[in-house]
UniProtKB/TrEMBL annotation:
The keyword Membrane appears for this protein: yes
Name recorded for this polypeptide: ABC transporter membrane-spanning protein
Transmembrane helix keyword on record: yes
Lineage: Bacteria, Bacillati, Actinomycetota, Actinomycetes, Streptosporangiales
Annotated transmembrane regions: 12-32, 73-94, 115-148, 154-175, 182-201, 226-247, 284-302, 317-338, 359-380, 400-419, 431-452, 472-494
Keywords annotated in UniProt: Membrane, Transmembrane, Transmembrane helix
Taxonomic source organism: Nonomuraea monospora
């Protein structure tokens, strides 16, 4: 285990350093910017009143527990810390478990004097150490650099670290259950997004058992509740133990359940047919899941009203969340050619009469058509569900338009993945997900007032925000940017060598 741990640290030392820097830098930036934005008690009270009166902000982040600058910074930074640490840990766990098996490197390591659980134990140790380091550095920066109380700073850091570890354990389990790294990433990111969607229907205390509620119930810099730490730690422990059990029961390279033999079918026609044969089932499953969830949200929103949160606002919030989920799936789909190349399948196909442009184009057809189809299903589902509850059929067209406006943004984040795959394939995964995480962080920063609307509109998640009216300029600009990125990636792939 010690050798594998050293290998992981050496291989991803820059990635880990960036992970720690971003996770520590975000609350520090919030502390600096909010102190300048809200220098007086009166300014903070006005800001808190405005935040509590905004149903979208209240549903996503909960109420501010206190009027001190420390409480405001903790309120603003908590979900950001969970998102950054959770996504980084989740992808890191899959990268060094399932992805290693997909490329065949895990089999080479297992041929040596290495135990069955050595790799998974090394990953757990590294992730736990990184999250502990992030928690300690966050507490130190907030406590020493900004003079915040030590107890509140430590609780803030530990809640974020424990929650991030729970999401990493989820990624670890997904890596053991799923048959491939892309499927594990899609499932893990889906759980992450679902966990961070606040329990707007549940009472405040019940939200403590949901990931989005851990920091708000802990109340750092208020009446600190240290017992909340036990919830994410218990979740992380249970998921990790289950991952160990599954790891011991499955064959190397397989999931928990063996794949069922596929029925005899004609050979796929063309590169696009091959891409659909490989990943069409996953795409259809995610589309169906989004459709069912969309109908449910639309139905609930028809009769929903809690305080200032109306059904229309709830529908806007969840439509935006669904759009962000589709963006995550768009990145996963855009990275599928990298998985095919890393596993040696691309070289086998390209050894035939199929050219590089044709092969990559087949994957791009599916990768770019899938987000558009998913967003169409989200619009129809939310609109139809709402129409069934209210009897107002015009909601369907409105929701379809709202969802389809987000298509260029989904194509843009997919375009970043495609361009980086063509130019620097080994950096494609961290770069694509870094752009996605950075865009999500900018959403929270704009809602806090730390960045302006113009800067926010330059991010993929900007113009689709329910509080903004995008017009046609921003979607058109992102559509052109996506086209440029896809063209760049395709041209670079046609010239470079395949991965060994």
């Amino acid at each position: 285990m010690k050798t594998i741990t050293h290998l992981i640290l050496r291989r991803d030392r820059l990635l880990i350093a960036a992970w720690i820097a971003v996770a520590v830098g975000v609350p520090a930036f919030n502390a600096y910017s909010l102190a300048a934005l809200l220098p007086t008690q009166a300014a903070r009270i006005a800001f808190i009143d405005a935040a509590d009166a905004n149903p979208i902000t209240l549903a996503l982040l909960g109420p501010v527990h206190g009027t001190s600058i420390e409480a405001v910074v903790a309120w603003r930074s908590s979900v950001q810390s969970l998102l950054i640490g959770g996504l980084a840990g989740l992808l890191f766990a899959i990268r060094h478990t399932r992805a290693e098996e997909d490329t065949g490197r895990r089999e080479l390591v297992a041929a040596g004097a290495v135990g069955r659980y050595a790799a998974i134990t090394a990953v757990v140790a590294v992730i736990a150490a990184v999250n502990l380091a992030v928690a300690g550095l966050q507490a130190a920066v907030l406590g020493l650099a900004f003079g915040y109380p030590a107890d509140g700073s430590l609780l803030f850091g530990l809640v974020g670290g424990a929650g991030s570890t729970a999401f990493a354990a989820c990624g670890l389990l997904a890596a053991q259950l799923c048959q491939s790294a892309p499927l594990a990433r899609a499932g893990g990111v889906g759980v992450l997004v679902a966990g961070l969607v606040p329990g707007v229907i549940l009472p405040e205390e019940a939200v403590a058992y949901l990931p989005a509620g851990w920091p708000r119930v802990a109340r750092a810099y208020g009446d600190e509740r240290w017992w909340v730490l036990l919830v994410p730690l218990a979740v992380a422990l249970v998921l990790t133990l289950v991952a160990y059990v599954v790891c011991g029961r499955r064959e190397l390279g397989a999931g928990l359940l063996p794949e069922r033999p596929a029925p005899a079918r004609p050979a796929p026609r063309g590169a696009a047919g091959l891409a659909w044969r490989l990943y069409g089932g996953q795409t259809a499953s995610w589309t169906a899941a989004l459709g069912m969830a969309s109908v449910g949200v639309g139905w609930v929103s028809a009769s929903f009203e809690v305080g200032t949160l109306t059904g229309e606002t709830l529908l806007e919030i969840f439509t935006y969340v669904f759009c962000m989920v589709v963006a995550c799936l768009a990145v996963t789909g855009a990275l599928r050619p990298l998985g095919e190349e890393s596993r040696g399948r691309a070289s086998a196909v390209l050894a035939t009469a199929t050219g590089r442009t044709r092969w990559l184009g087949g994957h791009l057809v599916l990768g770019l058509a899938a987000p558009a189809a998913m967003l169409l299903v989200v619009g129809v589902g939310t609109g139809a569900g709402h129409a069934l509850g209210t009897g107002l059929s015009d909601t369907v067209l409105t929701q379809v338009g709202t969802a389809l406006v987000f298509v260029p943004a989904a194509w843009a984040v997919a375009g970043v993945a495609i361009a980086s795959y063509g130019l620097r394939p080994r950096a494609a995964v961290p770069l694509a997900w870094a752009v996605l995480v950075g865009s999500a962080v900018c959403v929270a920063m704009w809602e806090a007032g730390t960045i302006g609307t113009t800067a926010f509109l330059l991010t993929p998640f900007g113009y689709g925000h329910p509080s903004l009216s995008p017009g046609f300029l921003a979607p058109a600009g992102y559509a052109l940017a996506a086209a440029g990125l896809v063209t760049t990636g395709s041209a670079a792939f046609a010239r470079r060598d395949l991965l060994a």
